[in-house]
């Protein structure tokens, strides 16, 4: 995922999850670089994104 604050790209697993410092429990992933609280992407959003990516493949996406 990409940090919404500093733009740093990191794996969800590398981010700090459940930091214990967020009120009401931590349900976000903190950026390992700037500690910004990135909202967790629901599995459904990922699936939708994957579908869009598939449709986009003919545009020559650089990935
Ligand atoms: Zn937190
Ligand atoms: Zn960051």
Structural notes for this entry:
The protein is α+β, with helices and mostly antiparallel strands and 63 residues long. It has one domain (1-63). Helices cover 22% and strands 13% of the residues. It has a three-stranded antiparallel β-sheet with strand order 1-2-3, with no helix packed on it. A hairpin with a 6-residue loop joins strand 2 and strand 3 (37-39). The longest helix has 14 residues, at 43-56. The chain is elongated, with a radius of gyration of 14 Å. The protein starts with 15 loop residues before the first strand and ends in a 7-residue tail after the last helix. The protein binds zinc ion (ZN) (2 copies). One zinc ion binds next to strand 2.
Report Rg. 14 Å
| Major sheet description | 3 strands, antiparallel
Order of helices and strands: EEEH
Average of per-residue pLDDT values = 84
Binned, the helix content reads: 10-25%
The hetero molecules present are:
zinc ion
Helical region count? 1
Strands ordered across the widest β-sheet: 1-2-3
Strand tally: 3
Q: TL;DR of this structure?
A:
With 63 residues, the protein is α+β, with helices and mostly antiparallel strands. 22% of the residues lie in helices and 13% in strands.
How is the topology of this model organized?
Blueprint: E1 16-17, E2 28-30, E3 37-39, H1 43-56
Antiparallel strand pairs: 1-2, 2-3
The protein binds zinc ion (2 copies).
